[in-house]
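user: Please supply your own:

assistant:
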Amino acid sequence: AILPYCQALEKSAPHIQQLSMESNGKGVSIEGVPLSYEAGEIDF
């Protein structure tokens, strides 16, 4: 879970979720080379 600690960051959690969803399932780099790692993973 991403919990904003102030009102200014209120929209950051949905934005980060959207970025993650857009990245999931992509297995190639921008050059078209297959990745040797999982894409779209965010760990804090």
User: Anything to note?
Assistant: The helical segments are 12-23. The first helix runs from residue 12 to 23. The mean pLDDT is 79.
